[in-house]
From TrEMBL:
It comes from Flavobacterium aquidurense. Keywords: Signal. This is MORN variant repeat-containing protein. Residues 1-30 form the signal peptide.
Amino acid sequence: MLLNTSKPYFKNKSLYILFVLMLFTINTSAQNDTLFFDQNWKNTIKESAIYYRTKPVKIKTKNAIGYKLAATDSLYIINDYYLKNNKLQFEGYSEDSEGKYLVGKAKWYDENNNLLDSRDFNYKNYNKSKFEFPKWPILYLDYKIASKNQFIGGLEFCLDCESKNKLFLGLGFGVTSYNHTYYGLPDLHLSYNTEKFLFIKSGISDKHAYALAGATLLNFLDLGFGYSQSFNKDKIPVINGFTFGATFRFSSNQKVYTQIKIM
């Protein structure tokens, strides 16, 4: 006997199946839009995640932070949560969907929803351009010891302060002594300081060249070991051999220093 599929029973069943499929599709889409992170904020799967982020959505810049930016029409809303209790861990706005370039007010919370930190990334007077001159120079003081002690002071420019890894170009002048006579010692150097608290540095004077590597304390203090090579060992002062160096930086520009982000 043929079944009459036009009866309401079959219509209702078809609608039910369609409804279930729609719910499954919506749920799958929502999971794909969610990013999961481990304790070091590296992307991971849900089973090993500590935090998660809902899909960032865009909002007009003025509606988000109350003022316009020259080259940014809209910002992403960034919301991070603790996976174990779905409590808010971070809220803020960013120029990018990864949350690397924060704008306006940002807040961090602990697992009990208590405020840990709040910062205002205020770029009201910030005007983006393809090229920007380095910020006001950094004052640096430097001490090295190889075959002779060297005391140097001068100015550094932060060539790439917007990224977590910093590149410093320095120009200074110092002194060293040789047989109870003092000699002037110009200094030109490049120092690459990473967010992992390490640095590499190379420099040159009219008497020698040097290279150092070591650890940095938030870019305020660099301590390193390396080697100096004299250009002419027959002309004094002779600066040659294994070298220890310490560099201090002083600047009102906080982007010079490595920032510790509180999670």
